[in-house]
Amino acid sequence: MQPKVTVWDRAIRFFHWSQLILVAGLWYTGDQGMMAQHQLLAYGLLALMLSRLIWGFIGSSTARFVNFAATPTAAVRYLRHPYPVTGHNPASFYMVTLLLLLLTIQLITGLATFDNSYLSDGPLVSVLPAYWVDLASAVHKININVLLAAVAVHVVAAIWHSVRIHNVIWVMLSGKQHAVDKNVNLQPSRWFFLMLTIILLLLYWWQGKPLSALL
Predict the structure, then answer these.
(1) pTM for the model
(2) Which residue of 140, 143, 169, 182 has the fewest C-beta atoms within 10 A of its own C-beta?
(3) Containing H/E element for 126?
(4) What is the pLDDT of residue 75?
(5) For residue 213, what pLDDT is reported?
């Protein structure tokens, strides 16, 4: 049996599981009308997303978008005959892209969403025309359901893949697997966490203090 090698750095594992927790928290706080908490979590997710996008260009080889981008033909071929791969498989490229797109839409529209309380409106509400605010608010409410459906599909696919092909859930937890390709170039995750910390501080300086006062 091949020895296990690290294929997912700490940055990607932290992003993956923190993203899941934050999305669940955002859904709950939004559903319960806890808007200050909702926005604080949203800024946390925004910082996480921005850090991941940057890490997708400068991070470890398995984190870089260019290294797991795949054609539709390759994705369909993989879905017909799945097999263990190092890092993302060809089909997961499209799921990752979809999830990042839906999260981006949710975050951007959230910045322009009207809360009705006047206390925790999105920061763009005061600078955008009413039409755009109404549109952003409507998209924000619809997109969360699309996002949750995509997350559910992703979870089911991950469970199926873990049972039938190889345990991708455990690999994302541990970071290690019996790699098909051992040429994985890992970058120090401290740079990801440094970026994340800086972005969090900037967002807190921008919007965090007034929201914290509403708690």
Answers:
(1) 0.92
(2) 182
(3) none
(4) 95
(5) 80
**Number of neighbouring beta carbons within 10 Å of residue 16:** 13
What six digits make up the tokens of 1? 């049996």
Whole-angstrom distance, CA of residue 45 vs CA of residue 81: 35
73 SS3 class: helix
| Amino acid found at 61 | S
Extended strands (E) in the chain: 5-6, 176-177
Q: How far apart are CA 183 and CA 191, in angstroms?
A: 21
Strand 176-177 versus strand 5-6 pairing type: antiparallel
| Residues of the chain predicted below pLDDT 70 | 1-2, 116-120, 179, 181-182
* Radius of gyration, alpha carbons of the chain: 19
Asked if 192 and 55 touch (Cβ cutoff 8 Å), the reply is: yes
Tokens of 155: 């979870």
For the chain, the distance separating the N- and C-terminal CA atoms, rounded to the nearest angstrom, is 54
